Amino acid sequence: MLSNKSFVRKTRHGRVIKVVREHYLRDDISCGALFCPQCDTSKAALRQTAENILVVDTNVVLHQMDLLENEIISDVVVLSVVLEEVKNKNLSLYNRLRAIIDNPTRHFFVFANEHHKDTYIKALAGETPNDRNDRAIRVATQWYQEHLGPSAKVILLTNDMDNRSKARESGIISETVQAYVQSLGKPELLDLVARSDAMDIDKNEAEDLRPNKKAVVYAEHKVMSEITAGLHQGRYHQGKLRVNRYNPFVAYVGSESVGEEILINGRQDMNRAFDGDVVAVELLPQSLLPGSQAVKIADRDDEEEEEEPVGLVPASADDAPQESQVQENSQLTGSNRPCGRVIGIIKRNWRQYCGSLEPMKMPGGSGGNVHALFVSADRRIPKIRIQTRQLANLIDKRIIASVDSWEPNSRYPSGHYVRTIGDIGDRATESDVLLIENDINSRPFADAVLACLPPLPWSVSDQDLLHQQRQDLRNLCVFSVDPIGCKDIDDALHCKLMPNGLYEVGVHIADVTNFVHPGTPLDEEASQRGTSVYMVERRIDMLPKPLTEDICSLRADVERLAFSVLWEMTAEAEIVSVSFTKSIIKSSAALSYVEAQARMDDSRLEDALTADLRNMNRLAKIMRQRRIERGALTLASPEVKFEIDTETHDPLDVGMYQVREANQMVEEFMLAANISVAEKILKHFPAYSLLRRHPVPTPNMFEPLLRTAAAVGVHLDISSSKALADSLDHAVGDDPYFNKLIRILATRCMTQAVYFCSGELSLPEFHHYGLAAPLYTHFTSPIRRYADVIVHRLLAAALGLSNLPPQFRDRSTLTSISDNLNYRHRNAQMAGRASVELHTLIFFKNRPMDAEARIVKIQSNGFIVFVPKFGIEGPVYLIGKGASKIASGSTSECSWVVDEEMQTVRASDGNCTFRVLDVTHVHIEVVEPQPNRPKLQLTLVS
Amino acid sequence: MEFISPEGLRLDGRRPHEMRQLHAEVGVVAKADGSALFEMGNTKVIAAVYGPHEVQIHSQQLHDQALVRCEYSMAAFSTGERRRRGKSDRRAMELSLVIRQTLEAAILTHLMPRSQIDIFVQVLQADGGTRAACINAASMALADAGIPMRDLVVSCAAGYLNSTPLLDLNYIEDSGGGPDLTVGIFPKLDKVSLLQMDSKLSTDLFEKVLTLAMEGSKAIAEYMRQMLLENTQKLAFARGTLKR
Question: Domain named PIN: which ranges (chain A) (predicted)?
Answer without folding.
Answer: 52-165
